[in-house]
Each structure stands twice: as C-alpha cells, then as structure tokens.
Design a protein that fits this description.
Largest sheet: 6 strands, mixed
Helix content: 25-40%
Structural class: alpha/beta
Number of helices: 8
Amino acid sequence: MDTSTRLLMFLDVVERGSFAKAAQHRDIDRSVISKQISKLEEELSVRLLNRTTRSFSLTAAGAEMVKKAQQLRKLLSETQLLAENYHTEPKGLLKITSSTIIGRRYVQPVVNEFQKRFPQVEVELRLEDRLVDIVGEGYDLAFRVGEPKDSSLIARKIARNRLVMLATPQFLTTYGEPKCMEDLSVLPAASYASEGLKFNGISYLDENNEPQEVAIKSVFRSNDGELLMMKVLSDTAFCNVPAFLVDKEVINGQLVPLLTNVTLSDYSALYAVYPHRDLPVRTRLFFDALRDYIGKDTPIWERNIPGFESLYGFTAPIKPPQF
C-alpha cells in the first residue's frame, strides 16, 4: 500500500469519525486501518492523530494533511473522469443512492434497460432514506426529494412533485365524502412521520390565495410511503401524499382523489445530486435515461392520475408555439 492510498484511508477515518466506520466502509478489519495510519505517520515523520481508547482528535499536522488528502481525492477523481470520457463505450462502476420508493419504483427500471444498452457498466444501487454523504461514501449520483442543502454539490431538478388527497370508495361510503377542508379534520388519516418530522395538518390556499392549514386526525403514521398507501387501501384512512406514491390505484378505481378544487401546496421536487459538474459518460447517460423515463414535462406519476394537470389548483405552463 503506497502513501497516497494510506492518505485516502486517513481521510476516510476523519470524515467518518472512527476507525470502525472507515473499516466497515472499506470492508476490511479495523486493525488494518489502524496499522496503515500508523505507517503513514511513520512515513511522514509526524503525528496525525491523538488517539484514546474510544476516540481520536486531529493534531495541527493532521488537520493540514486532511486538506491535502481532499485535494488528492479530487485530483484522482478528475483524472479518472478525464480517462473515462475518452471511452467510446461507457464502462465501470456506477454507484447510486436513492430514497427507497424512488429507487424501487423509478430508478431500478432504468437500471435494467441501461445495462441492456451498456453491459460493461456495473451498477450499485443503495436505497436509504437517510441523508447520504455523497462525496465521502463515493457515490456518483443521488436521487433526492427535497431542496438540496449542501451548496458544494451539483443539483439538477428532474421533476415536480405535487400532492394528492386520496381515499377508497369504501372509506367514503363509511365516513361520507368531505365537502370542504374542515371536514377532513374529523376523518381518520394516515400521515408521514419520521425522527424530527411529523405531519399533523394539510397546507392549502384559501379562496383569497392565503396559506391555511387544517389539522388532521392521524390514526396511523409511518416513515414509509408504501405503508401509508397500504393503510389507505385498507379502507380505514385517507391520506395526503406526494403523487409519486400513486401507481395504478386511481386508474383502476381503488382510490379516489378528494377535494380536487382545493389549491394544495406543492411538495418538494425530485432532484439528481452529484459531486462534480463534469460527469463521467456513464453517469451522464444514466441521468439522461432516468429523466427521459420520468418525463421532462409531465412526470410519469402524474400520468397515473387522470386529469391531474387541472386538479388542486395546478395550471400547466403554456408551451411556446413551435415554428
């Protein structure tokens, strides 16, 4: 193992916060990491870390060496990118992270077709709803719902993501069809909840275009969108969910949109996030394939809801005439 490799291993330890996490990421034993960092310190003749039995802290030299290691990682990445862009046929590993339902429903079908076209490309798709460290964990692409918060990353909007209120016909027979937003407050609801985030109401615009919110009576909460849909399909709750959760349930009559004359606030859009502006060929081609699959104008999930372009106060943008 050479000095540059040990330096990147040292960077892994610092960015992940422990030897154990760095070892887990690299799929090697913790003792190997510890030994290689010690060798790096011997080669450089300087202490990089002050270690205790449970933690470590950077020395002044270590803090400076982190900066150099980050520069090295960037240089190696750019070198690899330059070489890959000379390939006429995309090849190599494409590492992708995505939220669970987006990955299952929209990314995986594109992976299947992409690898038929480009069999030399390997794909690793990780489905996680946590905020992944794209650079530190070596991902080429991330697909995220919500405005990107890390300004050091490149983000491109793929599709809008509107909300829809849904219930089954049987639910409406049992509880009655709501005539206004206030009626929803007494109906059993299924709503999203996760650590630090809980939806207790539905935001909308009133007849004066003023933002309002009606409280809902959540009888079931989950951090998994598919479970919310299963709950609604059991005829025991209604929901207010992003349209990307809808498959064929509205088309086949299992679910009915509620209060479609109300103007709902938009949910966060779907974004592709990546570490560098200059994408390798395989990454750029996959991004293009996913965007084409989802749809540049009308997202695929909106096509699952007949007439959705005129529901919930949405007005589709007018396209300029083509000459």
